[in-house]
Design a protein that fits this description.
The chain has about 375 residues and is an alpha/beta fold. It folds into two domains: about 190 residues, 3-Layer(aba) Sandwich (Rossmann fold), CATH 3.40.50; about 170 residues, 3-Layer(aba) Sandwich (Rossmann fold), CATH 3.40.50.2000. The protein is built from 15 helices and 13 strands. The strands form two sheets. It has a seven-stranded parallel sheet, with helices on both faces. Helix 1 packs across helix 15, helix 7 packs across helix 13 and helix 11 crosses helix 14.
Length: about 375
């Protein structure tokens, strides 16, 4: 039986990308092979239940309750590798871009994205840049790198100077909760959304490019826009306008406030909002994977998304792909699809079929193979 220690910092955050990945992987992994998992979590978390075959272990730091940043750094660099070695694990898996610089056992690191190294708006303060320099150096020392898309593998190869054919790609998958809901229209009507709508969920930071979406919506012909809602999940943060552009000011400037709805969306709500939407849109400049378009397709929603980074890899030919910088192209794609039920039906069928190609059983199988390769290599070097 393989014995793997896993950094569980994101285990209690199942709605964020790394948390979704960690839950999907660990829920599947013990079903594909004989694997014992020791999941190491911080002291200040109240984690959800763990799957059979996974054991929780708390790793404390001198900074618990004193400094969240220092506690996180100590947890990643010292507490987790020490706990992994103490537990007798054969290997430590860090499922996000924060491997320890030194560890007494082999390390496998999953890189969800390298956005802080590639886009200026995400580089942050000197402390953030110092942290990123540390984890970049530590990643070069990891025995194996996993990435969640071929696009990230290419970036990792260039930035970390690792041959791309040595990087293992393990795609993500939509949670099984993302499926068509027959009562979705009635469900969203209770939230005040009645009639055709374009749906967006995925955050408002600079790379998400929601400004282009807002401008494209404003540029739709009046006879389309006045009968269509633009539904945006969540609120735009009001701090750090470099990282979070003022989308609401642009909505007001364009005079489209009456047709735009911001709504709070829970994890339970999201499959219904996808299912009832006329279209789902995702104009992002850069994604490590891009779960929302895949979730939308799994719910049977026609998708229009950016043609950059990992997104074409995820949606294939089951979505309309548009240059994220071209407002006119977005306007035309939205207008055409809103008026063409036959194309929407074709995309709905293609999207559902495409989404079925991604599942966490395959992700787990590929990951376990990587574990075995690293453990065998480490054994042969002794």
């Amino acid at each position: 039986m393989l014995h793997i220690a896993v950094n569980g910092f994101f285990w209690d955050k199942p709605t964020v990308g790394v948390g979704q990945y960690l839950h999907g992987l660990l829920n599947a992994i013990t079903h594909v092979d004989a694997v014992r998992i020791d999941l190491i979590i911080p002291a200040d978390t109240t984690p959800p239940e763990v799957p059979t075959g996974v054991t929780l272990h708390v790793a404390r730091t001198p900074f618990d309750g004193v400094s969240a940043n220092l506690a996180k750094l100590w947890f990643e660099q010292i507490a987790v590798p020490q706990a992994a070695a103490r537990l007798g694990a054969q290997l430590l898996h860090v499922p996000y871009f924060a491997p320890p610089y030194m560890c007494g056992i082999p390390v496998v690191t999953t890189i969800p994205d390298l956005i802080p190294l590639t886009r200026p708006a995400y580089r942050g303060s000197a402390l953030v840049r110092g942290y990123m320099a540390l984890v970049k150096a530590a990643s070069k020392r990891s025995h194996t790198l996993l990435t969640i898309s071929h696009a990230v593998a290419q970036s990792a190869s260039q930035l970390l100077r690792r041959p791309v054919d040595e990087i293992v790609v393990t795609h993500l998958a939509a949670d099984p909760m993302y499926t068509p809901h027959a009562d979705a229209v009635a469900y969203v009507a209770q939230r005040g959304i009645i009639g055709p709508y374009i749906y967006y969920v995925g955050g408002y930071d600079e790379r998400k490019n929601v400004m282009t979406l807002v401008r494209a919506f404003a540029a739709l012909p009046d006879h389309i826009r006045t009968h269509t809602w633009l539904v945006l999940a969540g609120k735009v943060p009001s701090h750090n306008r470099t990282l979070f552009p003022d989308i609401d000011a642009e909505i007001d400037r364009l005079g489209i406030r009456a047709r735009v709805k911001h709504i709070d969306v829970s994890r339970v709500d999201n499959p219904y909002l996808y299912s009832a939407a006329t279209l789902f849109v995702y104009p992002s400049f850069l994604e490590g994977f891009g779960l929302p378009p895949l979730e939308a397709m799994a719910c049977g929603t026609p998708v229009v998304c950016s043609n950059q980074s990992s997104l074409p890899e995820v949606v294939g030919d089951a979505a309309i792909l548009v240059d994220p910088s071209d407002v006119s192209a977005w306007r035309d794609a939205l207008a055409r699809l809103l008026q063409d039920p036959h194309q929407r039906a074709a995309l709905r069928a293609a999207g559902m079929q495409r989404a079925q190609r991604f599942d966490y059983v395959h992700t787990a199988q590929t990951t376990v193979t990587a574990y075995r390769t690293v453990i065998n290599q480490a054994g042969s070097q002794r």
